[in-house]
C-alpha cells in the first residue's frame, strides 16, 4: 500500500508479526515492543506504544502500523498517556510516566485505593512502580500516596468547613484512626490543630521521642556570627519570607514539644491560598528536619549490615533543611570549593549587603532572589566573592525572578528532573545540585558527589588507604539506598565526633 503525504510517496513497511500476536503484546503492556510497532485506534484516532497503560479496545477496532510516520500519514494523533512522540524523540518515557502519574494522584488522590491500583492505572507492575517512584520521588509508592493524600487534606481543612472525618475519607484514607495517625506523623499536629492555623499567631508541634534539636541548631548556626539566625536560652529566632513579607519567628523546644510564635508586620497582606500560619508551619518542619523518615532508615538497618554499623553508636538524626530551597542553593553556590569557615563569612557578608533589616537591633532576613538579582557582580566581588561565583549567584537569582527556574515546582516533582534542571544553569554542577536536593528540597536518597567531607568520612568508615573518587563514592554509597541522604548526614557527623 502506498500513500502520498505532502507531495511525497511513502510505502508502509510490512510488520513481521500477526495481528493476534501484537494484540496479545499490547494486552500485556510489553515495553520490549515499543518502537517495533504502533497501535492505532480507529474509534478515537490516536496511536499508542505497545506498553500504553490505557484500556485496550477490541482487536477489530485496531490497526497496527510499523512507524510513527505511517501513523501520522493515516491521520492518527499521539496518545497523551504513553506519549509515543517523546519515545521516538528519544526522551525519557519513564520520566514522563512519573510526571503524569503524579498529576493524576494530585487531581484525585482517593482514586487510588492501593499501590496495586496505582500500578494498574499506569499499566506497569508493582515492582516497576516501586522502582519508578524510588528513582523520582525517593519514596515508596505507599509513602507517596500518603503524602499526596495529606497535602489534599491540608488544603481542604483550611479552605472548607467539612467535617474532619469526611475530609480524611474523601482524600482516600480508610478510617478516621488511619487519617489521624498518618496526618499527625507527617504534620506533627492533629488535623483539628492544623485547621486553626488559618487564624493564629502560634502553634505547637509534637516531636518524635528520639528527636534532639542539637544537630539542627548546629546546622543553622554554622555561621557563628549570623545576622539572620539567633539561638539563646529560650528560643531559636529566625526571619522567614511569608507571602513576600519578612516574618520573625521564635521557636522554643521543651522536651517533646516545639512551640512557634510570630508577629505579622503591620502592612502584611494575607494570601488567600496560603495563610501565614500554614506557610510558617511548612518552613518550621523543614528547619527541624521533621520530614525525615528516621524510623524507615533505622528499620532498614536491621537487614543492612552497612547501615547497622553506621548507626550503632549514633543517635537519630533528623536532617534539617533551609527555610526555602533558594536559601540552600545560595549556600551551595557560596560553598563551592572553599572551606566552611570562609563560606560562612561570605554568606554573612551577602546577608549584610542584600538582606533587609528586621527590627531595631540589626537583625536581618536572608535575601530573596529578587534582592540578589538586583545586585551587580562588582558588589559581590567587593565583599570577596570570586568573579565567577558572583555571576553564578546573580544568574540563578535572575532565572528565578524571570520565571525560567521554579524551585518550588522542582521540589514537588522528580529528583531526576530537578537535578538536570539545576545542572543546566551556569555554574551548577552535581555537588551543588545534590546539596540543594538534600538541604533545600528534602529528597531522601541523594549522594553529594564531590563533597570532601563525605570522601573523608567514607575513607574512615570503610578504612580505605586513600580517599575514594567520585565513581567510587557512588558505589560505596549504594548499600545505603534508599536512605542515602540520612546516611550522608550520619557520615558527616562521624567526622565531627572523631575530631
UniProtKB/TrEMBL annotation:
EC number(s) recorded for this UniProt protein: 3.2.2.21
Needs which cofactor?
Answer: Zn(2+)
**Annotated ranges, domain HTH araC/xylS-type:** 99-197
| GO terms for MF | alkylated DNA binding; DNA-3-methyladenine glycosylase activity; DNA-7-methylguanine glycosylase activity; DNA-binding transcription factor activity; methyltransferase activity; sequence-specific DNA binding; zinc ion binding
* A Pfam entry, by short name: Ada_Zn_binding
One annotated Gene Ontology cellular component of this protein:
protein-DNA complex
Question: Keywords of this protein's UniProt record, alphabetized?
Answer: Activator, DNA damage, DNA repair, DNA-binding, Metal-binding, Methyltransferase, Transcription, Transcription regulation, Transferase, Zinc
Q: Which CDD domains match?
A: ENDO3c (cd00056)
GO biological process, alphabetically ordered: base-excision repair, AP site formation; DNA alkylation repair; methylation
According to UniProt, the reaction catalysed is: Hydrolysis of alkylated DNA, releasing 3-methyladenine, 3-methylguanine, 7-methylguanine and 7-methyladenine
- The entry's protein name is DNA-3-methyladenine glycosylase II
Amino acid at each position: 500500500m502506498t500513500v502520498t503525504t505532502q507531495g511525497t510517496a511513502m510505502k508502509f513497511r510490512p510488520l513481521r508479526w500477526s495481528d493476534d500476536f501484537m494484540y496479545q503484546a499490547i494486552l500485556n503492556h510489553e515495553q520490549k515492543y515499543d518502537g517495533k510497532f504502533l497501535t492505532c485506534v480507529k474509534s478515537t484516532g490516536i496511536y499508542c506504544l505497545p506498553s500504553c497503560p490505557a484500556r485496550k479496545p477490541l482487536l477489530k477496532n485496531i490497526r497496527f502500523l510499523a512507524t510513527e510516520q505511517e501513523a501520522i500519514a493515516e491521520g492518527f494523533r499521539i496518545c497523551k498517556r504513553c506519549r509515543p512522540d517523546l519515545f521516538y524523540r528519544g526522551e525519557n518515557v519513564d520520566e514522563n510516566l512519573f510526571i503524569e502519574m503524579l498529576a493524576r494522584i494530585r487531581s484525585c488522590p482517593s482514586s487510588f485505593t492501593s499501590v496495586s491500583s496505582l500500578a494498574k492505572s499506569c499499566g506497569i507492575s508493582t515492582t516497576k512502580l516501586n522502582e519508578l517512584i524510588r528513582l523520582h520521588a525517593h519514596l515508596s509508592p505507599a509513602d507517596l500516596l500518603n503524602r499526596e493524600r495529606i497535602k489534599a487534606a491540608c488544603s481542604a481543612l483550611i479552605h472548607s468547613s467539612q467535617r474532619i472525618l469526611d475530609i480524611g475519607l474523601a482524600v482516600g484514607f480508610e478510617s478516621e484512626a488511619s487519617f489521624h495517625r498518618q496526618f499527625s506523623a507527617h504534620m506533627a499536629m492533629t488535623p483539628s490543630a492544623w485547621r486553626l492555623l488559618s487564624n493564629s499567631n502560634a502553634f505547637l508541634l509534637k516531636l518524635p521521642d528520639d528527636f534532639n534539636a542539637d544537630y539542627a541548631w548546629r546546622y543553622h548556626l554554622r555561621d557563628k556570627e549570623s545576622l539572620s539566625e539567633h539561638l539563646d536560652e529560650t528560643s531559636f529566632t529566625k526571619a522567614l519570607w511569608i507571602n513576600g513579607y519578612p516574618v520573625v519567628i521564635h521557636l522554643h523546644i521543651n522536651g517533646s514539644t516545639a512551640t512557634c510564635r510570630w508577629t505579622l508586620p503591620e502592612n502584611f497582606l494575607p494570601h488567600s491560598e496560603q495563610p501565614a500560619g500554614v506557610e510558617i508551619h511548612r518552613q518550621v518542619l523543614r528547619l527541624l528536619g521533621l520530614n525525615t523518615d528516621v524510623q524507615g532508615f533505622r528499620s532498614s538497618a536491621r537487614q543492612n549490615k552497612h547501615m547497622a554499623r553506621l548507626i550503632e553508636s549514633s543517635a537519630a538524626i533528623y536532617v534539617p533543611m533551609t527555610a526555602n530551597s533558594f536559601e540552600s542553593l545560595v549556600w551551595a553556590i557560596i560553598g563551592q570549593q572553599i572551606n566552611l569557615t570562609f563560606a560562612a563569612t561570605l554568606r554573612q557578608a551577602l546577608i549584610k549587603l542584600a538582606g533587609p533589616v528586621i527590627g531595631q537591633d540589626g537583625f536581618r532576613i536572608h535575601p530573596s532572589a529578587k534582592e540578589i538579582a538586583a545586585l551587580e557582580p562588582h558588589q559581590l566581588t567587593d565583599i570577596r566573592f570570586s568573579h565567577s561565583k558572583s555571576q553564578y549567584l546573580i544568574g540563578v537569582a535572575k532565572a528565578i525572578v524571570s520565571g525560567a527556574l521554579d524551585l518550588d515546582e522542582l521540589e514537588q516533582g522528580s529528583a531526576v528532573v530537578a537535578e538536570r534542571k539545576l545542572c543546566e544553569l551556569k555554574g551548577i554542577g552535581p555537588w551543588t545540585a545534590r546539596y540543594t536536593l538534600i538541604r533545600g528540597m528534602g529528597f531522601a536518597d541523594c549522594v553529594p558527589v564531590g563533597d570532601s567531607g563525605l570522601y573523608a568520612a567514607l575513607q574512615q568508615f570503610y578504612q580505605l588507604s586513600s580517599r575514594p573518587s567520585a565513581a567510587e563514592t557512588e558505589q560505596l554509597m549504594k548499600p545505603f539506598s534508599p536512605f542515602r541522604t540520612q546516611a550522608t548526614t550520619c557520615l558527616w557527623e562521624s567526622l565531627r565526633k572523631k575530631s
